[in-house]
């Protein structure tokens, strides 16, 4: 039956029944219910289903509902963030494909709120082109809430193997000079995300002279409880194939640059910041190398705890196109790639505007930006 809750969390039967049972099955261990509903029911007691994140809350009692009414679920409850309309990925079996891991080795995580740790790696696949088809996070068990995001940067190929001998805190005055050669992001992962699978016709190129030989892995550790003695060995697994795909993949970053000039006042129920990737920017970035533009097939929207919604707006010839990606119900702990239903062409001279919506209603001090990438 279709129920809803009021502000006191009291369950009430909805006079407009919009949920329809399609299938039900029960055995000694499982109860399975399949149901359907319109995305927009025009019922004020129902939440519209969009491409934004949805919190699905579940609860059950081990006995069926009796004449006395509903049984209280007790501790048999939970919640999960999902993107119900995110198109399914076309999974190509990777069980037999080779892979290599880029993982930290016994990194001592400081007892402070935020730490960025950088480690250089050498790509083991060389001298022949291959395509990375999938990247999986390797998060140390128990550290799921500690590792906030991982970025992989391409570095100068003129470095030598001596840069592989040490890791160091990123953006630190004593950071090795070799780290400064690593500017181009080639992959990103954030908390709550699963492995990223490239479309069947696209792969991340490795193994040629133009591809990265050295990469820098940046891991953001989020330790708000200032826990001492944490040792981490998290990282990424890159699965690759010698069977080449039609197109090479890359990353374009858009959003708000990390800057002390970007700050958010306290006590604000909503505060909006915009990051502009101007037509001059995309003209310079794409005009010479990609005059026919690039195809966008997935977007990762990324923010921190004050983030409430993110929208990626796309303009062509001064006219706004359909939103490239959005999440009006942003969940810090569920930062998953959005696969576009149809690839979008981004041309030299287009504009991208990243809208970041924040709430600091529960904060009494100014919020200074540490990192926002989309």
UniProtKB/TrEMBL annotation:
Classification via SUPFAM superfamilies: PHM/PNGase F
GO cellular component: endoplasmic reticulum membrane; extracellular space; secretory granule membrane
InterPro entries: Cu2_ascorb_mOase-like_C (IPR014784), Cu2_ascorb_mOase_N (IPR000323), Cu2_ascorb_mOase_N_sf (IPR036939), Cu2_monoox_C (IPR024548), DBH-like (IPR000945), DOH_DOMON (IPR045266), DOMON_domain (IPR005018), PHM/PNGase_F_dom_sf (IPR008977)
Cofactor requirement: Cu(2+)
Keyword Signal among UniProt keywords: yes
Alphabetical UniProt keywords: Copper, Disulfide bond, Endoplasmic reticulum, Glycoprotein, Membrane, Metal-binding, Monooxygenase, Oxidoreductase, Signal, Transmembrane, Transmembrane helix
Main location: endoplasmic reticulum
Presence of the UniProt keyword Signal in the record: yes
Signal peptide range: none
Membrane topology reported for the UniProt record: Single-pass type I membrane protein
GO molecular function: copper ion binding; dopamine beta-monooxygenase activity
Compartments in which it is found: Endoplasmic reticulum membrane
Domain DOMON: 1-61
GO biological process: dopamine catabolic process; norepinephrine biosynthetic process; octopamine biosynthetic process
Pfam family, one: Cu2_monoox_C
PROSITE patterns: DOMON
PANTHER family: DBH-LIKE MONOOXYGENASE PROTEIN 1, DOPAMINE BETA HYDROXYLASE RELATED
Family stated for the protein in its record: Belongs to the copper type II ascorbate-dependent monooxygenase family.
Descriptive protein name: MOXD1 protein
Source organism (scientific name): Sterrhoptilus dennistouni
């Amino acid at each position: 039956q279709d129920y809803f809750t009021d502000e006191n969390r009291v369950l009430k039967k909805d006079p407009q029944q919009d949920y329809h049972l399609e299938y039900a099955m029960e055995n000694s261990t499982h109860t399975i219910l399949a149901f359907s509903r319109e995305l927009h029911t025009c019922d004020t007691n129902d939440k519209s289903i969009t491409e934004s994140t949805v919190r699905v809350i579940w609860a059950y009692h081990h006995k069926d509902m009796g004449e006395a009414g509903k049984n209280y679920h007790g501790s048999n409850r939970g919640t999960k963030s999902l993107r119900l309309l995110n198109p399914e990925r076309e999974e190509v079996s990777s069980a037999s494909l080779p892979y290599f891991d880029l993982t930290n080795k016994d990194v001592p995580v400081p007892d402070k709120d935020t730490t960025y740790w950088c480690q250089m790696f050498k790509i083991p696949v060389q001298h022949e082109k291959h395509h990375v088809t999938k990247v999986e996070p390797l998060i140390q068990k128990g550290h799921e809430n500690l590792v906030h995001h991982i970025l992989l940067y391409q570095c100068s190929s003129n470095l030598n193997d001596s840069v592989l001998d040490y890791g160091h805190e990123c953006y630190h005055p004593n950071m090795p000079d070799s780290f400064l050669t690593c500017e181009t992001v080639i992959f990103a992962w954030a908390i709550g995300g699963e492995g990223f699978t490239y479309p069947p016709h696209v792969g991340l190129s490795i193994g040629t002279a133009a591809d990265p030989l050295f990469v820098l892995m940046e891991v953001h550790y989020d330790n708000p409880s200032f826990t001492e003695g944490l040792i981490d060995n998290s990282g990424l697994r890159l699965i690759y194939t010698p069977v080449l795909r039609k197109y090479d993949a890359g990353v374009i970053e858009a959003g708000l640059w990390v800057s002390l000039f970007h700050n958010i006042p306290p006590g604000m129920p909503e505060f909006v910041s915009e990051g502009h990737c101007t037509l001059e920017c995309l003209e310079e970035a794409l005009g010479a190398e990609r005059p026919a533009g690039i195809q966008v097939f997935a977007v990762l929207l990324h923010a921190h705890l004050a983030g409430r919604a993110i929208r990626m707006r796309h303009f062509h010839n001064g006219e706004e196109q359909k939103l490239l990606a959005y999440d009006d119900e942003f969940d810090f702990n569920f930062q998953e790639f959005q696969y576009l239903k149809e690839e979008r062409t981004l041309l030299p001279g287009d504009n991208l505007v990243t809208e970041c919506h924040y709430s600091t209603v529960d904060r009494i001090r100014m919020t200074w930006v540490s990192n926002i990438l989309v």
